[in-house]
Amino acid sequence: MVTASIVVHRTPAGQLRTALESLMQGTVECVYVIDNSPDDSLRVVCREYPCVRYCHVENRGFGAGHNIALRKAIDGGSDYHIVMNADVVWKGDIVADIVRYMECNRDIGLLAPRVYYPDGVLQYSCRMLPTPFVLFQKRFLPQWLSRRRLDRYLLADSDHSQAFDCPYLLGCFMFFRVEALRDVGLFDERFFMYPEDIDISRRMGRRYRSVYWPGVNIVHEHAAASRHDLCMLWIHLSNMVRYFNKWGWFIDKERRLMNRRLMENLPRISNRTRPVGRG
């Protein structure tokens, strides 16, 4: 049994409908749409799909919204659960392909597929665990000043045509084994949004494999709201402070160990054949 959840907030009806149509191509038995919006106007869209369960709730953040659905999935006996954004689409039944891969690799607790932008450019969706310094560089400095360090963080030199274990998988599409979630725990609701995917990826990596798998592809629009909105930027920064307060700012032995293990086992390609991508 596969379930899924999408957390929405003032999401355009057409965008939500497109995401739901992608899920309808697969073997997903129930989709939870958790609506943090001030009104419940998206309820009309959800009524178009018999397998969609609509929940209009108080806005307590991205992770807290998905946790509502995850608890329902656990109570309902789901085997796998997809956490995804409303700006994600794909073609074909990729869910069945992922399930087959997960069934053959029972030690995987979390999987993320290969991600592209709508213009066809590869999105660097698997990354090293971040340090405060590299995130400051990525957010506030021109990329030409720190290209080498950012490329290392974004794993730009890795061979994205091969699967590999990764301690940080982007939260736009996360395919969880529900049994592993019961063991590791759900999203940390102290984070309103942004670092909750980093946090759950590294927690999953302690006991299970957290894997990037290019066997299927998705398209992620990735609006990057905090680059264009001062309010979202403040939310991003304040929640990253909470993340580093939890795990450590400059002394984080687990981060160092996980990143070292990643770089030692990372499949690499030469710069001459490196696909052009961005993070």
CATH architectural grouping: Alpha-Beta Complex
Strand content: 15-25%
Distance between the termini: 33 Å
Largest sheet: 9 strands, mixed
Description of the molecule:
The chain is α/β, with parallel strands linked by helices. It has one domain (2-278): Spore Coat Polysaccharide Biosynthesis Protein SpsA, Chain A, CATH 3.90.550. Helix content is 38%, strand content 23%. The protein is built from ten helices and 13 strands. The chain has helices at residues 13-24, 43-46, 62-75, 94-104, 132-140, 147-153, 178-184, 196-207, 230-247, 253-265, and strands spanning 2-8, 28-35, 52-56, 80-84, 88-89, 108-116, 122-123, 126-127, 164-165, 168-169, 173-177, 209-220, 277-278. The strands form three sheets. Strands 1, 2, 3, 4, 5, 6, 9, 11 and 12 form a nine-stranded mixed β-sheet that branches. Helix 2 (43-46) links the parallel strand 2 and strand 3. The mean pLDDT is 92.
